[in-house]
Task: inverse folding
């Protein structure tokens, strides 16, 4: 894509939400727009990141054999009354209507998914089963803050599994845990699986997937190499203890952002809806459920918190809106400018033809400093710079955003370098 | 996908919404589930159709140079007050919150998109521009009916364009009109571009894209070969008149479903938000806007209304959840069944490896009649049937759902036939 065709422009400063790094950088780069406190629109560059995270999550959930569906955001009040949560979930938006009916606006989907799956699960042969969706959810937060980390409207993946036995639920729960580690690693995040309370529904732990950053609202007891941890509610270890898996490290309290959670619901919701199955003997048996969330838009914000420097965002290759940022510095004469423009166009075509996604800075009349500052702010993994100077030696200057290492590369070797960088 | 892995099952009858063919067939096939009147969840098979329609729409909007974004569903009341529509749009859901603020739940996005694009459009150099989104929308309908044709929650593509001059808006409007014909044709629908009132904002016509079916709520004056028409509000022609473009045909009133509309907003919203641009002389000028909608989920329902027979749905190839429905009839002996199962698995692997999407009926203990009835109901374009009888002559029976034409094909020629059928 050409920068002159892109709707958005970068901004040097933003006034809003100065306290949150993800909001600052996403707003300055034109990735999102704040519509209200806690409510963001995803602009073209930001939507590309969001879709990349969605794709990674979808691939890993599909690999678990879970089936994608899309449940309604509007939910019947009756279902929430049936589970006893209509008056207890304080972040539930309640929507009045012309018909005098009130609807729930989905912040979670147990009230929908349980009767939905119940309609198709009759016998032990229908179990286990698992479904998931990627959907916009709504929470009536009293205070929305931290940019896209905690909003009133956000994109979430929620998955629900259904089982005959505790052992089967446990086994699936462990597989989902492994898949979650893969999801976050593929998104460029180091997540830890943190023991948390199972809540009122279970005497088991649940697990939060936490990424350590100062923007986090949660406190986690962990150590640097440990991919596990304990949260404040359930901690049996204490600060200064040796890490159970890495005895040379001591545990300390760190701030974390919860990017996912997995939870055994047991029979909490199947009982509320009378969801049972017939076993081999024709006896009715209760169904055990698990639920598994990933905050898709929160992952994007967490990546920005975890992957940035003083110049801007450092997108991991897997989620970057574009792989390559192609920059041309202005020529000193009209002839030099014309030659440079021709080379830019040629390389844009060659790189996109070779399958790379390229953002080309084809804007007129900007200084080298302005162009390079924008490239740093927008954070594509590989910057390719063409100028009179580089073309004079039949070369481009390439720079990796990750470590800012740069080198001159002969144009003849440029395509191979790009291929090696993105495999 | 294997039918034994699929969450959903077909149903012989459904009690709900018996009046609407799309609801009946989509519910019976397990494509959707009705959560409440006018509110549906999209189950795995149905979601695949929805995504196929989305993909077609996205490709055509991208080809127009429009940029995809995702605006918030929650919208600030203040913006709706500013345009004067807070109290005049009766289908607008108004959502109260814990913070005492009220939000609008988006049924359309002029109130969001105008200030959003305004933030990035300063000069004539930034125009024209166009953005679109594919998003779940909400309408507080007093009466929801006709299955997924008119719901309280639905998926829609809405695009908004911004121009300097009426001539530029007119030219873009014409390009969008052409793209809309392509979208609907690619979805297997014959749409007509029907003149309708421009509403209060314009002395021009708007255009509705109408598909003629008895399920339609609108009345259209048109003729069989005419890809245009007039609606009741604006009709200057009358029943029995000769068709302007096909003089041998006479016009008559037909029922239609509106699957899309295009509309010139003029300065209605840019004026409300003070959106202007600086022209070459540095003078502030008003921005002209157009808006362009396609009801994505309504398109799915319209396809069912337009493409079905007494046995079930006849999905067009472009949107079918799977291309091929692979059926095996039960063998008479255990040996025959084992040989059949092995062949089924082999062909499932061969077809999916060759890039085809395949739904395989691997259920045990069903009669031939039950299997074939399900294949007809679910409506995949090509059915491949293996049985003792076909295997005895090294063949499969293939049947096209469209015209129910069937033939025996040698297994050696089966892959080539599939390739020829889906190019």
Result:
């Amino acid at each position: 894509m050409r920068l002159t065709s892109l709707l958005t422009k970068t901004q040097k400063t933003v006034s809003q939400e100065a306290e949150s790094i993800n909001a600052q950088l996403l707003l300055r780069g034109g990735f999102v727009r704040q519509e209200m406190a806690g409510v963001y629109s995803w602009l073209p560059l930001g939507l590309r990141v969001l879709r990349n995270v969605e794709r990674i999550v979808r691939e890993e959930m599909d690999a678990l054999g879970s089936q994608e569906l899309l449940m309604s955001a509007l939910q019947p009040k009756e279902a929430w009354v049936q589970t006893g949560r209509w008056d207890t979930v304080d972040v539930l938006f309640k929507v009045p209507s012309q018909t005098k009916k009130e609807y729930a606006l989905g912040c979670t989907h147990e009230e929908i998914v349980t009767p939905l799956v119940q309609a198709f699960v009759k016998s032990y042969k229908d179990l286990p089963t698992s479904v998931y969706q990627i959907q916009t959810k709504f929470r009536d937060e009293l205070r929305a803050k931290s940019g896209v980390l905690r909003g009133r409207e956000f994109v979430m993946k929620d998955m629900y599994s259904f089982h005959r036995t505790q052992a089967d639920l446990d086994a699936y729960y462990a597989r989902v845990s492994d898949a979650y580690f893969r999801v976050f690693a593929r998104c460029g995040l180091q997540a830890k699986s943190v023991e948390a309370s199972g809540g009122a529904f279970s005497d088991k732990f649940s697990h939060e997937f936490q990424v350590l950053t100062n923007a986090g609202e949660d406190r986690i007891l962990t150590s640097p190499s440990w991919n596990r941890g304990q949260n404040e509610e359930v901690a049996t270890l204490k600060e200064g203890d040796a890490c159970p898996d890495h005895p040379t490290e001591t545990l300390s309290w760190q701030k974390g952002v919860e990017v996912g959670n997995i939870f055994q619901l047991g029979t909490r919701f199947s009982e509320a809806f009378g969801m049972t199955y017939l076993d081999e003997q024709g006896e009715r048996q209760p169904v055990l459920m698990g639920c598994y969330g990933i905050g898709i838009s929160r992952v994007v914000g967490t990546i920005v918190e975890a992957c940035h420097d003083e110049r801007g965002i450092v997108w991991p290759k897997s989620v970057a809106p574009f792989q390559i940022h192609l920059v041309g510095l202005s020529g000193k004469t009209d002839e030099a400018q014309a030659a440079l423009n021709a080379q830019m166009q040629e390389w844009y075509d060659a790189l996109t033809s070779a399958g790379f996604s390229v953002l080309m800075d084809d804007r007129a009349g900007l200084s080298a400093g302005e162009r390079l500052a924008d490239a740093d702010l927008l954070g594509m993994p590989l910057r390719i710079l063409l100028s009179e100077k580089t073309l004079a030696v039949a070369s481009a200057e390439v720079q990796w955003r990750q470590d800012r290492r740069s080198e001159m590369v002969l144009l003849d070797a440029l395509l191979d370098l790009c291929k090696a960088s993105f495999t």
About this structure: Residues 156 and 295 of chain B are 5 Å apart (CA to CA).
